[in-house]
Amino acid sequence: MEGCHTDAFLTAASYLPDSLRLPVRSIPPDEAALVHEIRLRANAPLTLSCTDGEFYLTGSGKRTSIRQPGVATCTAEDVTDCVRRLCDYSLHTHQEQWRQGYVSAHGCRAGIGGTVVTECGRPVSFREMRSVCLRVARVHPGCAKPLLPYLIADGRVQSAVLCGAPSSGKTSLLRDLACQLATGFSGRRFRVAVVDERGELDIDGCLAECDLLTGIGKAEGLMQAVRCLAPDAVLFDEWSTREEALAVQNAAACGVAVITTCHSPTLAALYRRPAAREWLLSGTVTWAVELAGHTAPGEMAHIREVGRWVHEMDGADLLSAGGRGAGTVESGAARVSRTVVG
Fold first, then answer.
1. CA 226 from chain center: how many Å?
2. In terms of Cα–Cα distance, which of 76, 74, 80 is closest to 23?
3. 3-state secondary structure the chain
4. Cβ of 215: how many Cβ atoms within 10 Å?
5. Run of H or E including 310
6. When comparing pLDDT for 329 and 63, which is higher?
7. Which of 115, 147, 262, 332 is 20 to 30 Å from 125 by CA-CA measure?
8. Which pLDDT score is estimated for 107?
9. Mean pLDDT of the 1-24 span
10. Could you give the CA distance from residue 281 to residue 161 in angstroms, rounded to a whole number?
11. Are 22 and 112 a contacting pair, CB within 8 Å?
């Protein structure tokens, strides 16, 4: 498993400019396996975001938490060069991704910071790029295994939302779920469609037994999958809009389960979002899953049956609740054994 994690790290490092690639590739394999983001900022040290903290790098590839002389430092040209490498030196072919503030290549997604160019209030590109957050995309085979008993009932897949903070392993969990459902890990093979808008879910053909839709918006892709691919379940990453929630409800009306992820540190925080609350109250999602956080990527902290959980949340005083809802989310929770898969 460590070898797979190291390979993913080296793939991400291959997009770095020459001046930064050598120290990054000198990191010992056991430490490379802990890195989930590589951050470049113009005229600042290269930073590694790891499960055990944030670090700089010396020229010889040693991690350090102190900004000392000799740490690997990025220039403005390094930032631009990294983005060009991610785009395979063809920026115009990634213009739609640019508009949304990221570039995706071979499963690696890079967020871009800088001066945004807008037209009629709509972002279209960057005039100046000042930072790149390069995510290390990893496959965690088997990490979704504890979820399967909940998501499969009476021979059918149940709809679910997986929520967690950034870098908590939502995408890794979703990817493994798609693979396990499609390949029969649960004892039965299901027809699985994956809407991969950003092209980062199918790493090295790991979703070869799924029907994959790329280059299409999530809501539109979800309905296209339902109409044309006859799936038992459709999976997509990062639900965020009412349009996507409506597409999930329409899929449910057609008898198709939907599993998606959502940026939210806790289930209680998810329920406080008006669009999410409206969606959860619609009755089209059966299970809500909360991930443990970035220190244990892919680890599931809580699984809740949505109907019972929203009833509890409606009866709780959310304004005075702290942490996970002052015990509200814990009460009656289906618990999952914590197994780190990072």
1. 23
2. 74
3. CHHHHHHHHHHHHCCCCHHHHHHHHCCCHHHHCCEEEEEEECCEECEEEECCEEEEEECCCCEECCCCCCECEECHHHHHHHHHHHCCCCHHHHHHHHHCCEEEECCEEEEEEEEEEEECCEEEEEEEEEEEEEECCCCCCCCCHHHHHHHEECCEECCEEEEECCCCCHHHHHHHHHHHHHHCCCCCCCCEEEEECCCCCCCCCCCCCCEEEECCCHHHHHHHHHHHCCCCEEEECCCCCHHHHHHHHHHHHCCCEEEEEEECCCHHHHHHCHHHHHHHHCCCCCEEEEECCCCCCCCEEEEEEHHHHHHHHHCCCCCCCCCCCCCCCCCCCEECCCCCCC
4. 10
5. helix 306-314
6. 63
7. 262
8. 67
9. 80
10. 13
11. no
Arithmetic mean of pLDDT, 200-225: 90
Domains of the chain: 2-135 (no CATH), 145-335 (3.40.50.300)
Q: Return the DSSP state at 333.
A: P
pLDDT of residue 260: 95
- Whether residue 126 contacts residue 148, with contact meaning beta carbons closer than 8 Å, is answered with no
- Indicate the SS3 state at residue 145: helix
State the pTM of this model: 0.78
